[in-house]
Amino acid sequence: MSIEIVLILFFGMILIGVPISFAMISISGAYFLMGPIPSFVDLLPQKIFEGIDYIVLTAIPFFLLAGELMSRSGMAERLMHFSNLVIGRVRGGFAYVNVLASLLFSGLTGVAVGDIAALGKVEVTAMEKAGYPRPFAAAVTVASSLVGPIIPPSGIIILYCAIMNVSVGAMFLAALIPGVMMALADMSVIGAQAKKRNFPKSDVKRSLPEFVTGTKDATLALLMPVVLIGGIVGGIMTPTEAAAVAVAYALVVGVFIYRALSWKDVYRIFVSSSFDAARLLFMIGAALTMTWIFALEDFAGTVSVLFGYFDGSPLMMILAINLLFIVLGMFMDAALALILFGPIVAPLAYAIGVSPTQLGIMLIVNVTVGLATPPIGNVLFAMCSVVKLDLKDLIRELLPFLAIKFVLLIVIGVFPFLTNAIPTYFGFR
C-alpha cells in the first residue's frame, strides 16, 4: 500500500464520519497486513502507548479538568461583566466585550470549544438583545474563541512542546503577543462593521463602586493565568505541576469561595473530563501509528522535495508552510495535524532561520483557524448547535474575521520578533 493510497483512505474515512482515531488505527493495521512485513502489525499497541509516553502530556487532562471546573463555577459570567465595564460603552460595545471576555476566559481554559460552551450562549443572547443580528453575534464569538488555544495555559501548546522538544515556558511567552494581536484583529473587524452597520452602544453603568465591585468579582479568575505562567517561567512549577495547581485552584474557588459547585457537580465534571482526556490521548497514541508509516515511506523526503522549490525564498517557504497547515486544519483535528506534520516541516523551517517558538506559534495559529473552517470546523458546529443557527449564515458573517487572521499568519511568519522577543527577554533561546 503506497503513501498516496494511505492518505486518500485516511481523508476519505474522515469525510464519511469515521472517528479519527479508528481511521488511523484501521489504516495503519491494513498497511502492515498488506505490506512486505505483516508481523509489524503486532507492534501497533506498543506504538500507541509510545505516543502518550511523554511526561508533559500528563498536563493536558489536568488543564481540561481545570477548564471545565472554571466554566461551571461562574467565572465566565464574572469575566463577561468585567469586560463590559472596561469596554462596553463604545459603539459595537457588546461585540468588543465578547472579544475581551473570550481573551480572558480562554486564557483559563485554553480550549476554543470550551469557550463556546461556557460563553457562547451568554454572549450571543446578550448581543442579540442589544440589537445585533444573531449570525454576526455568533461569528464574533467563534472568531474570538480561536484565541483560546493561543493564550496560555494551552493544551495544544503543551502538546506541541512534547512533540517538538520545545520549552513549555518559552512557548507560553511566545504566544502572548500573537494572542493579543488576534484579539485586536477581531476588534478591528468589529470596528469597521460597527461603523458601517451602526451597531448600538452598551448602556452599562460605569460608576466607580460598580467598577470596583466588578473588578473584585473577576480578580480570582484574572489571577489564574498569571499564577500559572509565572510559576512555569520562574521555574517554580513544571507544566504538569502547574496543571495540577490549576485544578486545585479551580476547586477551591468554585466550591468554597463562589459556592457555585456542589460535590455532585464536581463528580460529574471529573467523569466528563476523564472521557475527554481519554479520547484526546488515545488519538495522540493512534497518530503515532500514522507517523510510523510516514517514516517508513519517507514522506518527509517527499515533502522536502516539494518544498525545495522555495529554497531560495524564505518568504515563499513560510507561505507554503502556512498554506499546508491551513489546508490540513480544514480537514483534520488541530492536534492531529501538529503530530503528523509538525516534525516533517520543522527541519525545513529551521533551515531558513525560523525558530522553534516562531514555528510553533505559526502552526498552532494555522490549525486553530482551521477549527472555524469547513468541512471539519468543530467550533463552527459547536456554535450552530449552541445557538440554533444555520451554518451558511454563520460562515457568511465569519469570512472577514477569517480573512484578517490569514493576514496575521503572514505577519507572524515575516516578523520573528513578535514571537521571539518575550522568550528572549526572559532568557530562553
Sequence-ordered SSE layout with sheet pairings:
Blueprint: H1 3-15, H2 20-34, H3 44-51, H4 59-72, H5 75-87, H6 93-109, H7 112-129, H8 134-145, H9 155-164, H10 168-174, H11 176-197, H12 208-233, H13 239-257, H14 263-296, H15 299-307, H16 314-331, H17 334-351, H18 356-370, H19 378-387, H20 391-414, H21 417-425
Helix pairs in contact: 1-2, 2-14, 3-14, 4-7, 4-9, 4-13, 4-14, 5-6, 5-12, 6-7, 6-8, 6-11, 6-12, 7-8, 7-19, 8-19, 8-20, 9-17, 9-18, 10-21, 11-20, 12-13, 14-17, 16-17, 16-18, 16-20, 17-18, 18-20
What are the main properties of this structure?
mainly alpha, globular, 2 domains, 21 helices, 0% strand, 429 residues
Distance between the termini: 42 Å
Rg for CA atoms: 22 Å
Pick out the low-confidence regions: none
As a percent range, the share of helical residues equals: over 70%
Q: What is the count of β-strands? A: 0
Shape: globular
The mean pLDDT is 80
DSSP summary: helix tally: 21
| N-to-C SSE string, H for helix and E for strand | HHHHHHHHHHHHHHHHHHHHH
